[in-house]
Write a structure and sequence with these properties.
Two copies of one chain form a homodimer. Chain A has about 350 residues and is of the alpha/beta class. Chain A has helices at about 35-45, 60-70, 80-95, 110-115, 160-170, 225-235, 245-255, 255-280, 300-310, 335-350; strands at about 25, 75-80, 100-105, 120-125, 145-150, 175-180, 200-205, 215-220, 285, 290-295, 315, 330.
Chain lengths: ~350, ~350
């Protein structure tokens, strides 16, 4: 017996690389545009001497602002250190039963990591041949369900009726819809929280709000669920979002105009990039996100292209994983960055 | 069977109140002084447009700076969202065995909350009649040990030999020394990490570094332990400290002069306040922290004084808990704030 026997040993999630040299970074689905000027203004106005005090543990200023913006009650909103923190707290809170939690075999690769670290039983359900979720797979008895919509890394979104069908078949477990990318497409399940008290809808400010570096995520749900979630949060860390995060989150939510503008630009660049990729012989699924999940033309290996792009200073993401190792996940950058990508791909493919 | 059956229901930690009106706030052990001017400068210089990118998940800039300052290797340092996050990750990582984790009955009230939420078996050991930790209590077989030194809310610190004795008897479990208040007194166990590979020493920037609002905690340990801790951290949330936290933490650590100055001032105010409290008939233990744990003179109830101070706009902390309900925990504020406290106490006691 040594102290090693008491240690929880896990295989962690591997985040995309954060290169320190100047590169074109299309590998972690960040926004190519800066956060709203209102965020910058809020930071410039902040009284940094106030850092001596704890932040408001309830983050009321932020949750109230989110609630107003989305037309729900503040008691139906929870916030955390990125949607990873929110999702992790959801796993810990809502998946404490003995039946397996269900999620797709190809999806955000943190779900099985959280299940492992919290020792939650889980079962993955295979996406079909077109990488679509099969709703009837989720009619089986379960201890909870997690669906990313749009799904990652496929980029495919489903409509609200699709999500509602899964909810109709699952009144006995909490259903989490992870909408990290929903602002770029797909239909949000948010209006369904009034009808289904076991539904949690998760969002992030890392993508469409251009604030990955601030770590702000949030979720919506019935106030009973949000209370349970807060009880667990207050049992893990009472003060999570720091003072600048609370102020920046509020400023970002308040600037709807800027938000619409950058999301619109990204969607337009995405459509142009998709066209160009098609011309080069890539195949892909229509994307509802800020990335394209694309398969190189016959005769080319995704991994080789990934490595050659990297040599040229362009980072995209490749998953060395069954069923998806033939694909590249390419974040939508600025128009200039995407031109450079297409230009470089042309050279690699010739 | 309903979805409620799958939910983890816990009794959360209750943080001290964060009043929104102007009061004298001596209830959550914050610093009465602002953070280092270098922190303010770092924030004013920060390029907020960079918030679009994820922070460095390894927080290398910060951990390297902490390592240099304390003369250890960066691989022996871990950082998190306040020491609560660091401690919570430590509980999750190091206390995965079946034997009970041991800690005092009177100590930081989060320990049993973490044990509950992570379903870790634990046993508390009674402090003696003078509120001192009894080392031999920790010779029993266990799955881990947590000692706050100085202890809270008693404020009593122990020397390094005391901690080393506990380590000598516990090679088979991880021993965590929570040094949230160590900069105000007591002897740090930090030099012992080279000798005991099962030792973790936890620190915070919320007290002596005057940055409760930024949420930065860190810990030291053998690089093997730090690796296990990082594996769990990367399995819960890869990106915890946001971009401003990493920059602010670095700036705070670099300003040793300012740090010494404010810690010195707080210690001086503490000694003066203790003298004044003694004159009023309070009894207390010599404090090694930025608070005094004091018992009102005979005939007065701590809770009544707590409520009367609150009416006068002075917040201190009272714990409605066995063995310590006769005490008040009073954070050391500025000299002016402490004069107001003493003045108000005089009125209450007459």
């Amino acid at each position: 017996m040594t102290y090693e026997d008491n240690i929880r040993k896990v295989t962690p999630y591997t985040p995309g690389e954060q290169p320190k040299t100047k590169v074109i970074k299309l590998n972690t689905n960040e926004s190519p545009y800066p956060p709203s000027p209102r965020v910058v203004e809020a930071m410039e106005k902040l009284d940094w001497n106030k850092l001596r005090l704890y932040p408001d543990p309830a983050m009321s200023e932020l949750t109230r602002c989110i609630a107003d913006h989305y037309g729900v009650k503040p008691s139906e909103v929870f916030a955390g250190v990125g949607s990873d923190d929110v999702l992790s707290m959801c796993f810990l809170t809502f998946f404490a039963g003995e039946k397996p939690v269900l999620f797709p075999d190809i999806t955000y690769s943190f779900y099985d990591v959280w299940a492992e670290v919290y020792r939650i039983p889980y079962e993955t359900k295979k996406l079909d041949g077109d990488f679509r979720i099969v709703p009837s797979d989720y009619y089986a008895p379960n201890g909870g369900i997690v669906i990313a919509n749009p799904n990652a890394p496929t980029g495919i979104g489903e409509n609200r009726a699709f999500i509602e069908d899964i909810l109709e078949h699952n009144s006995e477990s909490v259903v989490i819809i992870d909408e990290a990318y929903v602002d770029f497409g797909a239909e949000s399940a948010l209006p369904l929280i009034e009808k289904y008290e076991n539904l949690i809808v998760v969002r992030t400010m890392s993508k469409s709000r251009a604030m990955a570096g601030m770590r702000i995520g949030y979720c919506f749900g019935n106030e009973k669920l949000i209370k349970y979630l807060n009880d667990v949060k207050y049992s893990v860390n009472s003060y999570t979002l720091n003072i600048p995060s609370i102020a920046a989150g509020k400023a970002a939510i308040e600037d709807t105009e800027y938000f619409r503008e950058i999301v619109g630009r990204i969607k337009k660049t995405r459509e142009n990039t998709a066209e160009e990729l098609k011309k080069l012989g890539f195949s892909y699924f229509p994307s509802d996100t800020n990335f394209i999940f694309a398969k190189p033309p016959a005769g080319y290996k995704a991994k080789d292209i990934f490595l050659k792009l990297k040599e040229s200073g362009i980072y995209v993401r490749h998953f060395d994983k069954e069923r998806i190792s033939d694909y590249l996940r390419i974040t939508i950058g600025t128009d200039d960055e995407m031109h450079m990508l297409i230009h470089t791909l042309k050279e690699i493919l010739q």
